[in-house]
């Protein structure tokens, strides 16, 4: 078998905005062969495939027959339904966040990946921003986290709550920074475009520490910030400006946005997934088990708000 034939063959499910990003990353990575894309909208799939000289598959089964690794970038409510046959067919799978839209489905994906000894990864790539900053190496745990992630209505990911759409990024970061499980949750929410929350505020306790999350997809402007208060000071991050202020003594990297992973978190997440598939890394950036913990917390937040997670 030639070296090229040994390269994993990659495919993307979903030809929307995130599908285009993932397709480009696979096409640019010489370690894999980008085979093509599948989307129920065949015209949109063909346009994306043509961009990279790849194939627009007529069905999911046709894609699975010709690929080894799959990115799932379909609307969130289809994540588990697309990932299940891929994992059952022995494929390595990277799922854009959230992992699934209910806990049982997410747990089943994790179980099958373990049984099949396949890599299951998730697209919580803001974690790579914190890695580039150096926050995960901090010698202290936060006592308070305040995060805001909001923007105007776009209709994207409208099949799920804003909790599963936007807040999941900050829930993942908080779980990683706090190093423990949530033990109390209060939430209030407002729905404007469907049954699920379009705006939500949650207060979550982690022992003696607390985190306050605000997420909205009906805000007047985009904001992406997080403030983490530590015993020795605080770190305030602006994800849009790609800057932070630091009053602690932690040796954080002010030039994080110029690093490889800080400049392109999504690309670094895809590269980390491929590393895990090839055995170069012991695990992906965010594992299926970690994504399942984020999903559980997000669903608990929606439950506390009194609104459903699906629209």
Task: Provide structural commentary.
The mean pLDDT is 96. Strand 1 (9-13), helix 2 (17-28) and strand 2 (33-38) form a beta-alpha-beta unit. Helices cover 37% and strands 23% of the residues. It is globular and about 55 Å long. It has 2 domains: 3-125 and 267-286, Rossmann fold (3-Layer(aba) Sandwich); 127-258 and 293-305, Dihydrodipicolinate Reductase, domain 2, CATH 3.30.360.10. The protein is α/β, with parallel strands linked by helices. Strands 8-9-10-7-11-12-13 form a 7-stranded mixed sheet, covered by helices on one side. It contains 11 helices and 13 strands.
Structural class by sheet pairing and helices? alpha/beta
Side by side, the strands of the main sheet go 8-9-10-7-11-12-13
The mean pLDDT is 96
Low-confidence stretches: none
- Name the helix and strand elements from N-terminus to C-terminus, one letter apiece: HEHEHEHEHEHEHEHEEEEEEHHH
Count of helices? 11
Radius of gyration: 19 Å
**What would you say the CATH architecture of the largest domain is?**
2-Layer Sandwich
Shape: globular
Number of DSSP-assigned strands: 13
Number of domains: 2
List keywords for this structure.
alpha/beta; 7-stranded mixed β-sheet; 2 domains; 311 residues; single chain; 6-stranded parallel β-sheet; Dihydrodipicolinate Reductase, domain 2; Rossmann fold
Helices and strands, with pairings:
Elements: H1 3-6, E1 9-13, H2 17-28, E2 33-38, H3 42-51, E3 55-56, H4 60-64, E4 69-72, H5 79-88, E5 92-95, H6 103-116, E6 120-122, H7 126-133, E7 144-150, H8 162-178, E8 184-190, E9 199-206, E10 209-216, E11 223-230, E12 233-238, E13 243-246, H9 260-263, H10 265-278, H11 288-305
Parallel strand pairs: 1-2, 1-4, 2-3, 4-5, 5-6, 7-10
Antiparallel strand pairs: 7-11, 8-9, 9-10, 11-12, 12-13
Helix pairs in contact: 2-10, 5-6, 6-11, 7-10, 8-11
